[in-house]
Write a structure and sequence with these properties.
By secondary structure, chain A is α+β, with helices and mostly antiparallel strands. Chain A has five helices and five strands; from the N terminus they run ααβααβββαβ. Chain A has a five-stranded mixed β-sheet with strand order 2-1-3-4-5, covered by helices on one side. Chain A is globular. Chain B contains six helices and six strands; from the N terminus they run αββααββαββαα. Classes of the chains: A alpha+beta, B alpha+beta.
Amino acid sequence: MPQIKSLDELRNLRQQVERDISTRRHTGTTIIVGMGTCGIAAGARDTMHAILEELRKREIDANVTTVGCIGMCAKEPLVDVEQAGQPRVTYGNVTPDMVPRMIEEHLVKGQVVEEWVVGRLQSS
Amino acid sequence: MRELSLHVLDLLENSLAAGASQIRLGIEEDTRANLLVITVADNGRGMDRETQALAVDPFYTTRTTRHVGLGLPLLKAAAERCEGGLELHSEVGVGTTVRVSFQRDHIDRAPMGDLVSTLMGALLSSRRGWDLVFTHRFDQHEFGLDTSEARELLGDVPLTHPAVREWLESYLRQGYEELYEQGAG
């Protein structure tokens, strides 16, 4: 099977990123997207994709991860933003077109977009 | 759901919720036999006979947050609309296999949609310690990914690392472009 990209490239990538990984774990940002049936049906996958695109465009290093249903299905797609030392903020009904503003205000300027917040969790 | 790839993501999430450490996803498109088959096989906790019967009932779910579970019933209905069907094989402690088939050119068959986003959604799962073996066959052409190979090359660097995740996404997109080019040619 012809393949331009080869999995072996991951070996080099590993060396590049291994150095900065411990720092990110302690200071970084994690974005968590709800990906239960409810989230998927409400468009969470497209929201996740928009988040990945926006982070790439702005060259922001943030972890993105997905979780199952947490029971707030009517507010899906749900997106949590977790930053070291800050309460975890949950945004509700996050459609792809809301993503640029969420990233601009929350991640870049450090201001929570209050009107979209549906919950907060104190950092542990 | 509007795309089959969204159902695929839902199936993968089911396997993850069942505690699987190994998930095999196979997609087969056979234009000559006019068949599209999606198979998800996991080594999760499995279901007994009674639970298997309930799994396709919309008013059954293992979730504690509410009382309906629509994933499998919706997929079953989508397959049956297209002269296909959904088969469920499961054994407690061994795992679960879901096989869904569709008449490929059926007018009601939803488009495949964005499988790369589906795979990324699963690969970015917060659950650790599981591997996905994925193959997509389009007639005689094949494309796939085995995350255990990727993880071995990456060592301690997780698949969710921004640089890795971007690389994986472009790897998958490229693989798909080639698969469909070959399939069309």
